[in-house]
Amino acid sequence: MEKLYTKDQNKTKLVKAKSETIQFLLSYSKSLNITEVDGLQFESNLN
Amino acid sequence: MVVQIEDSQLVKKYIQGDERAIEALINRHNSRLTGFIYSKVGDRELTEDIFQDTFMKVIRTLKRGAYNEEGKFLPWVMRIAHNLVIDHFRKHNRMPMYNSKESYNIFSLLGDDKLNAEKQLIKEQIDSDLLRMIKELPEDQQEVLEMRIYKDMSFKEISDNTGVSINTALGRMRYALINLRKLVEANNIVLTN
Questions:
Q1: What is the ipTM of this complex?
Q2: Domain of residue B38, residue span
Q3: DSSP secondary structure, B121-185, as one string
Q4: B59 vs A22, A28, A42: nearest CB
Q5: Into how many domains does chain B fold?
Q6: How do residues A28-44 score in pLDDT, each as one tens digit?
């Protein structure tokens, strides 16, 4: 019996988020700063 | 033998300030979460966007100390992603529908868009509430918001005027809006007419 392998490798490629997206998230995490004043939290992004 | 640190340990480390922990968490759950989102939306670019928004929300929640340890990390992240997928579909299905039958009423499309006396009063109240809350924002955010909304300046002009980069001005605007929303929530103010 013929093997049922797909010819198009892309269709079976594991779906994963791009490394650029991961890098963006890591930079975002590093730059995000939360300060609390009188019970209110303020977000600031230190570029 | 490779010892894998549990998610809860990594979350704890991240909350304590170890940035490598979030990298480990993202990489660990990357393919599972991407696969989950892709199975719902069927589009690579959109999957990437929702993945990014999901982890931005995760990062903010963890940094704010608002993460509830009771549940498991991955199901929590999946729930956020699931809600964002629903938000996306809701936003894109919202199309104005016009009935083209005989009973079609032209006044549903045409109308006097001026505010009546009551609505005008409400608008003034909203404007004054808003101004009061803007005054509570950090000074740098207040400055950018006033220039952008009230003076209708472009971010390039704001950047030239304040001496910060366009990106910083954009960031300040974003945080001004986020903080304003928080103030609205904290003060239980209804800003609708």
A1: 0.73
A2: 7-93
A3: HHHHHHHHHHHHHHTTS-HHHHHHHIIIIIS---HHHHHHHHTS-HHHHHHHHHHHHHHHHHHHH
A4: A28
A5: 2
A6: 999 998 888 888 888 88
